[in-house]
Structure formats: structure tokens, C-alpha cells
């Protein structure tokens, strides 16, 4: 039985096959771009069908839904998506003025390109690059934390942090750095020091500006190169996949125990089969749902293509990913600390200091005692 789910837009447009519907070349579709089987039947929904159905959903709402969703982001103020829970009121919650989304990932996965695409789609900036990316002529890598107001609005309730990519061969240092960002917070222009940077780190210190606000990270998006994922699984060299898994499952990046959002870039370099299989395999490898856990968002703004005009599915996916990040972020706010909490914290701190003092004294006198014994003998 043929399924016509999500196909009314096509019919309204006289069955026009859009260039951006790359997934419709898969075997599961007939020549009219309809599913060959009934995908509303639960038993038919294999993981592969789930991805295809998800792509159809995005295509179905992309054109009409984009402005609506973008408007929600434009009018968003931090805490808007917070829902009362545990008998607390919104005023009792510690909600920052701006929600912070952190982009993390391996080197050259496309974090800066994704940031530029956000400016292009959400901030309607055209193709002006705001974050520097590496290109054919340069090996540029982001060396500082960069705060981006991707909506380009002074009243924006969200900001995005572009970060330095992690080196798969030096993951330990990279993960430590990510954990520090998560626990201490992030600040615009903060240098990303790694052991082995040499002289570069001295230079970067001069640019640090401690007057920028330190922000608590509310949600993490892990950006990953889908073409590299495909290559890794194909040749069985899973080094970079293990690195990605370590980052994805780093306990520090799981705010309120929620997984980061996975952004898959570079899909445009693959054919439909490779693209679907790559997504399936990485989601399985990371143990996340293949539809709600990941977004396939090729970032091709540098090649002079406006995602919104040429590829509304990508533009909508990006907007939905940010929307999801905000929903997730607004679940992470904690209750404000009250006087009683500060008093308990202060008492604990005093007790801890006294305990340390006694440990030092005990050590000192035990050494002193041994020394005296030796003298007597
Ligand atoms: N074809 C294609 N190229 C992409 C895509 N995303 C990024 N690129 C290219 O990949 C290269 C690396 O992208 P960047 O955005 O600099 O990557 P990054 O993650 O910021 O890299 P670091 O700052 O070094 O961590 C650049 O040449 C981009 O143009 C994509 O989705 N498709
Ligand atoms: Mg970068």
C-alpha cells in the first residue's frame, strides 16, 4: 500500500520534485516520491524508515514552518520554555539573562561553518561570514571561545559559543578543557590553551578580556562530520568515532542528564545511501534515537548557496535544532540559592577548613614525634 503521508505540499505544487529532497532517491520511494509501504503502520518502521519519515516531516513543514519557528526564536527570552515543576515558581529559579549553547566537536567538523549558517538562516545575514573557518587556502582553526549573537538582535535571549575543535589523538586534554568550560563557564575571547601549543598561547593571553561576562553553558551541540563518519565505518578505523563517543558521553556535557544534540555536517559530500547509513550507524554507535537525537545539516554557505532559498529543509532543521536546544536549556535551570543555602555552604566551608587544618597539624606532629624518637635512640 502506498503512503501519501506528508506529500500534500508536493501535490499542491504539481508534484514538483525538489532538488533538496536528496533522500527520495532511496529504494523505499516510488517514482512519484511516495513511500512504497505504509509508514504509519508501526511494525513497518525500521530505523531506516524512521530517518526517511523524519526527512519527509521536515520537508513537509520546512517552507511554511520556518518563519513561525524563527519568530519564536526571535521573541524568545531566557526561561520562556521553563515549565513549573516541584512546586517552584519561575521567580524562584536561577535563570540567566541569556541562554548559552556550546558547539563542541573534533577539529574541522564544521562548528564555525555551522555558526555562520545560523547567522545566515536565523539572523538573515546573507552569506557574510561571522566566524572564521578553514578553507582551501588556510588551515585556520578556532583558538578562542567566540560568543555569537546569531539572531543579530540586541534583545536576543540566546547566544552560541564556537569553540576550538578537539584533536582525536589528544582527547584527554580536550575533554578536560570541555569539562572546565562546563563547570566554570565560558567567556568571549577566552583562549583555548592546550599543552603543546607552545608560543601561540602567550600571544592569545594578550587578547583575553576579563570584562566579558562569564556564562554558564545550558546546552551542548556536538558537531560531527558525516563524511568522516562514513569513511571511518567503511574502513573500520574507529579512532575518531571513539573520540566522538567520549565527547558525546562526557558526563560534564550532559546537563540534567540530557544528551547533547548531534549536528551532522558535510552530508552534501555523500550520496543518499551513504548519508542515511552514516546517520544510522553513528546514532546506533552513540546509543541515541536516529530521528530526535540528530540533525543532518550541511553547511555550505561558503560556496555561495543560501540554505533558505536552495534548501529549506536544512534551514528548518537548523532552526528546529536551536529550538530544541532552548527547550532543553530551560529544563536545566536550578532553584536560586537562598540565605539558608548560603549559610549551609559557608558552614560546610568553615568545617572543611578546620578539617584541613587538623590534618596538617596531625601530619606535622606525627613527623615531629618520629624525629624526637630517633634523637632519643
Ligand atoms: N562540503 C561541506 N564542507 C563543509 C561543511 N561544513 C564545513 N565545511 C568545510 O569544512 C572545513 C572546516 O570547517 P570549519 O567550520 O572551519 O570547522 P571547525 O569545526 O570550526 O574547525 P576548528 O575551528 O578547527 O575546530 C571548511 O573548509 C568548511 O568550508 C559542510 O557541511 N559541507
Ligand atoms: Mg572553527
UniProtKB/TrEMBL annotation:
Q: Write down what this protein is called.
A: G domain-containing protein
Keyword field contains Plastid: no
Q: Where are the transmembrane segments?
A: 342-365
Membrane: is it a keyword of this entry?
A: yes
Tell me the keywords, alphabetical order.
Membrane, Transmembrane, Transmembrane helix
Q: Which SUPFAM superfamilies match?
A: P-loop containing nucleoside triphosphate hydrolases
PANTHER family for this protein: G DOMAIN-CONTAINING PROTEIN, INTERFERON-INDUCED PROTEIN 44
Amino acid at each position: 500500500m502506498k503512503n501519501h503521508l506528508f506529500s500534500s505540499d508536493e501535490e499542491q505544487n504539481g508534484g514538483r520534485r525538489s532538488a533538496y529532497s536528496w533522500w527520495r532517491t532511496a529504494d523505499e520511494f516510488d517514482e512519484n516520491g511516495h513511500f512504497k509501504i505504509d509508514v504509519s503502520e508501526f511494525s513497518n518502521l525500521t530505523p531506516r524508515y524512521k530517518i526517511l519519515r523524519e526527512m519527509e516531516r521536515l520537508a513537509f513543514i520546512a517552507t511554511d514552518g520556518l518563519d513561525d519557528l524563527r519568530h519564536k526564536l526571535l521573541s524568545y527570552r531566557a526561561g520562556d520554555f521553563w515549565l513549573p515543576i516541584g512546586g517552584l515558581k519561575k521567580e524562584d529559579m536561577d535563570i540567566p539573562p541569556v541562554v548559552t549553547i556550546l558547539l563542541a566537536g573534533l577539529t574541522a567538523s564544521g562548528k564555525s561553518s555551522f555558526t555562520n549558517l545560523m547567522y545566515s538562516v536565523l539572523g538573515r545575514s546573507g552569506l557574510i561570514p561571522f566566524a572564521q573557518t578553514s578553507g582551501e587556502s588556510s588551515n585556520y582553526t578556532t583558538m578562542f571561545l567566540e560568543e555569537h549573537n546569531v539572531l543579530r538582535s540586541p534583545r536576543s535571549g540566546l547566544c552560541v559559543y564556537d569553540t576550538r575543535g578537539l584533536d582525536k589523538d589528544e582527547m584527554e586534554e580536550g575533554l578536560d578543557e570541555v569539562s572546565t568550560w562546563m563547570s566554570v563557564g565560558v567567556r568571549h575571547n577566552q583562549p583555548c590553551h592546550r599543552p603543546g601549543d607552545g608560543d601561540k598561547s602567550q600571544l592569545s593571553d594578550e587578547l583575553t578580556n576579563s570584562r566579558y561576562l562569564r556564562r554558564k553553558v545550558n546546552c551542548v551541540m556536538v558537531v560531527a562530520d558525516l563524511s568522516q563518519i562514513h569513511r571511518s565505518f567503511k574502513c573500520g578505523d574507529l579512532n575518531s568515532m571513539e573520540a566522538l563517543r567520549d565527547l558525546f558521553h562526557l558526563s560534564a556535557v550532559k546537563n540534567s542528564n540530557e544528551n547533547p544534540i548531534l549536528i551532522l555536517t558535510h552530508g552534501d559530500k555523500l550520496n543518499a545511501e551513504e548519508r542515511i547509513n552514516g546517520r544510522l550507524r553513528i546514532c546506533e554507535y552513540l546509543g541515541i534515537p536516529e530521528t530526535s537525537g540528530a540533525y543532518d545539516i550541511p553547511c555550505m554557505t561558503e560556496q555561495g548557496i543560501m540554505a533558505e532559498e536552495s534548501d529549506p529543509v536544512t534551514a528548518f532543521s537548523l532552526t528546529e535544532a536551536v529550538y530544541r536546544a532552548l527547550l532543553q536549556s530551560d529544563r536545566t535551570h536550578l532553584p536560586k540559592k537562598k540565605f539558608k543555602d548560603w549559610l549551609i555552604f559557608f558552614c560546610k566551608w568553615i568545617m572543611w577548613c578546620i578539617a584541613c587544618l587538623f590534618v596538617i597539624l596531625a601530619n606535622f606532629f606525627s613527623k615531629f614525634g618520629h624525629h624526637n624518637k630517633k634523637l632519643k635512640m
